[in-house]
Amino acid sequence: VCGCKKHKLTDEAVERCSVPEVPKEHCGQRIMVKCLSLKFEIEIEPIFGTLALYDVKEKKKISEDFHFDLNSDQMKGLLRLHTPHTAISTLARSAIFSITYPSADIFLVIKLEKVLQQGDIGESCEPYMVMKESDSSKHKEKLEKLRLQAETSCSRLGRYRMPFAWTAIHLVNIVSSVGGLERSDPDSDSERKGHGTWNERKKKGFERMSVGEDMCNFATFRPATLTVTNFFKQEGDRLSDEDLYKFLADMRRPSSVLRRLRPVTAQLKIDISPAPDSPHYCLSPELLHVKPYPDLRVRPTKEVLEFPARYVYTPHTTYRNLLYIYPQSLNFSSRQGSVRNIAVKVQFMAGEDPSLAMPVIFGKSSCAEFFTEAYSPVIYHDKSPEFYEEVKMKIPANLTDNHHLLFTFYHISCQPKQNTPLETPVGYTWIPLMQHGRLRTGSFSLPVSVEKPPPSYSVLTPDVQLPGMKWVDNHKQVFNVEVTAASSVHTQDPHLDKFFTLCYVLEEYSFPFRLKDCIISEANVEGELKASMTGLRGALLDTCVRFLHQLLSKLILLIVHPPVIAGQIVNLGRAAFEAMSLLINQIHKNLEGNQDQHGRNNLLASYIHYCFHLPTAEPAMPPTGGATPAYELPIQYATLSRTTARPSTLHLARSKSISNSNPDLASTPTSPDEEVQRIIGSKVSSTSNTNQMASDRGCNRMSAFVDSATFCSAPTRQIAKKLLHEELALQWVVSTSTVREAALQQAWFFFQLMTKSMSHHLFLSSRIDLPRRQRFPDRFVDDIAALVGAISADVAGRYHKDVELVERLNSSLAFFLNDLLSLMDRGFVFNLIRSYYKQVYTHTQNPSSLTALRMDFTRIVCSHEHYVTLNLPCSTLSPPASPSPSTSSTTSQGSAFSSMHQDQGVASMFELSVPFRQQHFLSGLLLTELSLILEPDGEGVFFLHKKAISAVHSLMCSHDADPRYTDPQVRTHIAQLYLPLIPIVMDTLPQLHDFTDTSPARGRHAPAMQDDGDPDNGTISQSVAMAIAGSPLPHAKAPNFTMPTAGRQCSSLSAECSRTLLVSFLWVLKNADAALLESWVSDLSVLQINRLLDLLHLSVSCFEYKVGTTSGKKALERINSLTFKKSQDMKARLEEAILGTIGARQEMVRRCRGTKRSPYGNENVRWRKNVTHWRQNTDRLHTQSLCVCVWIKCCVCVCSSQRCCLRRTQSCVLTCVCVCSATAAAVWALSGVKPPPPSTC
Length: 1241
Fold this sequence. Notes:
The chain is an alpha+beta fold. 33% of the residues lie in helices and 13% in strands. β26 and β27 (518-520) form a beta hairpin. The longest helix has 30 residues, at 1110-1139. The N terminus and C terminus are likely disordered.
């Protein structure tokens, strides 16, 4: 419970907003699959493999394809003519798959392909099913013939593939301890490695499906090496994904039809294990190097991009612009001519010329990294083939209307014939990628042209029947293809696309602009933009979350820089604020599980902390001619927000002021205003960073928000400029109905956004050096006051309607005022706090509930970094002009305790008087709340007691742990802020838990006063109390005073709360000025002194060591019975020393005469070494005389010098006796004597 904690513990006073996680790329549970070897009974030709994950229940492919090549060098040599260059990225044999939603229905599907040859799939598989290498002598001639045919096919048809075989692995059988060991797949032999259990390294939990958590935990399972022996022959007419899902579902049945088929015998050895956190030599899905990557020549491991089965709500943090093409089926049954062995060639075209085919298609295995074309596998003699091919493309960010996908259909001649080409084009079709500024994705049914398309075809769709063109089957839709995108550039949502497009039109001032069927001009752009902002609520939530950073940045840009259209400023602040409020509220409602302990959505908090930036400069006019200059801004695209550069010397890692006692901090601020620089958070680098920047990211997927960008294209016109915090405050104050309610629901977001905007503004405008009263204009200060007053009224008035909302609103307001103490005039902020208290105090309904809200509010506000300085610990109690006058902005923390304590009314320092609460404003609030909650007749319940006491205790712990407050003089000034706690605890004494013995003679429930001469009296006598209090007549016998004979009231505080309160009380006694304490005690009444001593005795009883065993208790009771008289004698001697009734000389004479006998007998044991009573007495652990010097340092010296303790002398020459009863504690604590060292005790 120290002040350096950055997150909230239970009832902790030093409470900070938890620092959100750095935005990073989404990762599910990751498994690594290593392909070790692939062997067939005969080796005659190269075989190529593909891995992918499928979810049978969702009927979805949940990963992209991973291609691997396990052929020998001899087999690879057959294709050297077609692959002259092999990129090392295509040699990968291990892949890392990510699974966000683990399920018992996930299969790892393995597909094998071979080089195209004459004959159907069955004929190609037959040799592998019937021939064995062991029978090579028997089939020698046939094997030689097959090898010769394969060599001929590889040299002539090496670029084409045909389906061969497939199999699947049920992953749940691998990862579960039961399924992996007992219910393994019948088609695989599991060989368990003896490496033990893989350690759990993932911190996030993932959703579990119908089976148990252990069975679907892909993050922690034993690595397994599997040998897959049986493959199923591919069926030429059943290659679609729908057929595959039926096969996979059938595999789970005991009587599987597939298992009755004759398999293709092979041995595929693979290793499946949880992926390490930081794998070496890893490539991202874009083939970028993921650190650590120490050697570029090592065979890499590829990360396989996941296609989650359901939505994943994670914003884009890295640049990604991938396109996936899935040809599905083709119907050429009515096509005339020799059209049977059909291959589909896919190209990404930047124009209509054949030379404009772009090399953006990823290579598969053992080939070049990128190609300009890709071919689908060929089904032999099939005029209506089905396809399962996946074509992966890395498309450019800036697409135009001329970019399109071109599909060319070829008939492949498998047999070499004279005057017959290898490829014969039999059809063409295309898909324009951009339409009305949007990327076209989805499923397409396209007609196929028999002839080559005419010029300018790319701007039209093939659905348009151009004159003079011949179409297959009379322009019917005969080709089905699906196009999907994984892009951080294109939203693929009409509502977001319209909003971003209109923002682009305004930024570039490109009027008129055609948007679908509407022409955007200066006259209607304002209405269209407002309508698009209203339409954002209709966008899919997952799309809004993926583009959350860009979306919020655009809305903020419209608020800060309202556009100028036709010379008029168009105020879009209200519409943007409304859209932002509704969007934030929608995200919060639908993502309730992604929140911290204060109800803050982590996605939104990370945006403010790491991504938000304040536009600093007005865009310049475009240059009239010449080359475009390079601007020092990040690269951006039409849908991305512009960001600005900021000095790298700031503390970019933190956006809130945190305690200097945090050991993670490298330095301590020299002034309270240095907090502003720490509140300034990290700026966001655009997600459109270059590939090199993306390749430098670490394997922990931290995004580019901690990096910096350097260049950007310039905006094209000047626009108006406003300050975000001023606009937010204004729009919030004037908002009504739905918008205000949405803003209240997520008040924390707008408060933090305003705070960061204010800190950015102070830093960037160099206003941080101005006096606090001059930093912000009066209109903004008035808006803040009105906003805080309105929200305070909501907190007080709506508690009985919506408890959760009010609690969230209360803590959000407290954190906001905590931040304002670092930015604005502190007197003004204290007035805001006082206005909050007035609003809450005026409502009498649910007093205990409102007290809890006030306590939470006070605890958060008092958690400020400079809480001690804000309380002015060195000032006098003269009432200031404001609740607490602001300290200078340049006053250093070190000089806060330079002034000396001045003489003032001591009694007022121990009271919660008006001067005390005005001078020490925050501590006065805290102690006042504590006093009200601890009132015996109050309605405080257990949770209120614990909340208030823990707040005070935790603050003291933070002071103790703070390295700024190690100096004793500083501690004395801090303890001065808590002096009223002493009388508060004294008044609470009847409510405290009783830690003392329950025996009638020594218990605290016995009558508080008995005759002074009673030696069994457990309390101090009146004469001794008068002597301690400094009575001028210490020897006089004063009349007896009485205490309530009914004993203490029944305790209302728990033992835990009482112990915590006593610790806080002792901390104040320990650190307070001894002279000040002595002066205060001298003015106390006898009743108050007795109560103080009783409290000290209770403290000793609370923290003393207590033996827990029964035998130990009996032993102590036996020792106590022997030493009871000695204890009473020691007490009498102590009283005589205090009262001065016997001097050192009389004591010496009495000892010499032997008038004082040992309680163990008549003989003096001082000279009898064989008697061990004294040693036993010294070694014992007495529950009444345990030395608690650690707590109170209560050593009392009884010696020949009368009242030496009261005279503050250290010339004691006789035995120093450590007596830790309440009497001895009072003697030391109240007389100010420096105790002897503990070794003397």
